[in-house]
Structure prediction request, 465 residues.
Amino acid sequence: MTDATAALKLIDDSLEGAIERLFSFVRIPSISADPAYSADCDKAAAWIAAEFQALGCKASVRPTPGKPMVVAHYTPPDSGRKLPHVLFYGHYDVQPADPLDLWKNPPFEPQRIKNKAGVELLVGRGTADDKGQLMTFVEAARALIATNGSLPFKATFLIEGEEESGSPSLVPFLKENREELSCDVAFVCDTNMWDAKTPAITTRLRGLVHEEVTVIGPSIDLHSGMYGGPATNPIRALSRLVSSLHDAKGKVTIPGFYEGVSELPAAVKKQWASLKFSEKKFLGAVGLKTAAGEKGRSVLEQIWARPTAELNGMWGGYTGAGTKTVIPSKAFAKFTFRLVGKQNPAKVLKAFQRFAREQMMGDAKIAFSGKGGGSPASEISESNPFIRLSAAALKAEFKREAVLMGSGGSIPIVRHFKDILGMDSVLVGFGLDDDAIHSPNEKYNLSSFHRGMRSWVRIMGALGQ
Ligand code: BES
Ligand code: MN
Prediction:
């Protein structure tokens, strides 16, 4: 029988050490999207592999055409009983830190601070997404092994290094290592709580597909007086595309876009309404007042159950000091589409490309340079026994029922686990809406980190019963 009590006490008594380890991890700027940080990604992979080695796992850093994957296996001493084999997933890569000038402390020099309300925070890029989160299960495993001698189950740890850049190497890696990675269930620690006091299990994630476009006008930048009028301006053509993506009701206008999107069952609508989600607070916290998604749908529905067409960046022409009278030769933009239900990433991409070509005017041409790929949305059955076990453990820790919720974000591997390995995922995470993931001044509440570790001790303990 696993004694979780001793492990919980060890977590409380060794909090400082856990913070120090997390900070060492955060100091490695493992930004997967930017090739300049490729060596740091390798460093982060080696760092976390060494942690698993220290737990008594067989750990390896596995090269891929992109960033390496870290795989570690833990086999408990033979107990004569058939033990579950579970996989734990997290990602060691982080989002780019810019705009750098908006950080109060440098992004890769993590700090422990108290905010105005006296809440203790761990600040730095990756403290929440996902280094802090994944360290919650690593530290829980450490505490259980230290106090009980071993974990009461077989474990495989998979730590990815490309999650924040679309996971290009993931599908081939899962296919090549199907046997090795197939477990009874996957635990994913990369999602949020309902609020700081209420735990949650996420059962819906949106899918995602990217595209990047170059709109090409004249062959060179032109004098806007000499050519202004007859010359096609690519920024205007791109703006027309962007402004025609949505209708007045906030619906995406790309023909075929909503194929595979269905209306929410009445029971789900009712359950979401019962959550008493404050749209005003949610928007107010980020300086907004009015929901800008599809009219007539609640904010929760807009985030959890509706697809989007979003513009993530747009540039071109002269953006330096002062004025320059120029008609630029090119304009650029990055788009992402969040997907729900049965929407197919490849089809959505094709439909967008066709639509985008049709929006070009005059001599403007459009070229697409996205890497393709993408992943469909995930929905996980709430009656999964591992979800029920986790909900009970979370309740024991937080003294509150876990909310079963959706998430607007994407974790591509969850769908691939299901489709390639036939494995369901349980998404238990301790992030909060105001963690500023992907933004300047990312933080993880010390209480998220602490109670996250304690929650995993309870879940892991329960896996042994
Ligand atoms: N941890 C996030 C996803 C998330 C965010 C879940 C908030 C729940 C609440 C994840 O690391 C992430 O940001 N994923 C990217 C994936 C993309 C680049 C393929 C995303 O959603 O933008
Ligand atoms: Mn993440």
